[in-house]
Specification:
With 158 residues, the protein is mainly alpha-helical. Helix content is 48%, strand content 9%. The protein has 7 helices and 2 strands; from the N terminus they run βαβαααααα. Helix 1 runs parallel beside helix 2, helix 2 runs antiparallel to helix 3 and helix 5 crosses helix 7. It is elongated and about 55 Å long. It starts with 10 loop residues before the first strand and ends in a 13-residue tail after the last helix.
C-alpha cells in the first residue's frame, strides 16, 4: 500500500486470533503501526477476535508458558501507542490461559490438534514444525496424548 486516494478513507484490520497466531502477532502489530505512521493514526483501525468454534484452535489447550507471547504483544501495543481499547482486546486473551479446558476436553482438543496437522502435513507435503518451531514441545506432547491405548476385547464367553 503506497497511497490512499481519499482523505476520509479508513483501513480496518480484523485479526482472528487462534493458538497459532502467537509467534507472528507482533510482526502484524508493527506492520499496522507503520501504516499508521504513513497514513495517520486514526485512519488505520485494528480489531482482534478470538476463534471460539474449534477446540483444537483454542488458546486454552496451550501450556501456560505461551501466555508470554500475549504479554509481549500487549507491551508492544503499549510501546507503539495503540488505542487503549485495541490493547484491551488483546489483553483479555490472557484470561484464556488462566482458565484451561477441563482435562478430558483439553486432551481431546490436543489430540485433534496433533492429528489435524499431522494429516495436513502428509496430504500437502508441508512441515508443521518447520513453520512453527516454537510449538515443538507442545506438538510432541499432543502426539503423546493422541496415543490412546488400544482396548483389548474381552474374551468370548464359555
Amino acid at each position: 500500500l503506497t497511497r490512499v486516494n481519499s482523505d476520509k478513507a479508513v483501513l480496518c484490520f480484523t485479526a482472528t486470533y487462534n493458538n497459532l497466531a502467537l509467534p507472528g502477532f507482533n510482526n502484524l502489530l508493527r506492520f499496522i503501526h507503520q501504516l499508521r505512521e504513513d497514513f495517520g493514526h486514526n485512519r488505520v483501525i485494528f480489531y482482534t477476535h478470538l476463534v471460539k468454534t474449534h477446540d483444537h484452535q483454542a488458546l486454552e489447550i496451550l501450556p501456560a508458558s505461551f501466555a508470554e507471547y500475549v504479554s509481549d504483544s500487549v507491551a508492544v501495543m503499549e510501546q507503539l501507542k495503540f488505542h487503549s481499547w485495541e490493547t484491551d482486546l488483546v489483553r483479555r486473551l490472557l484470561a484464556h490461559f488462566k482458565t484451561p479446558f477441563e482435562p478430558a476436553r483439553q486432551q481431546k482438543a490436543r489430540m485433534k490438534f496433533f492429528n489435524f496437522f499431522r494429516e495436513y502435513d502428509r496430504r500437502r507435503g508441508t512441515d508443521f514444525l518447520a513453520t512453527f518451531p516454537e510449538y515443538r514441545a507442545f506438538y510432541a506432547n499432543c502426539g503423546l496424548e493422541s496415543k490412546v491405548p488400544e482396548v483389548t476385547p474381552a474374551p468370548a464367553g464359555p
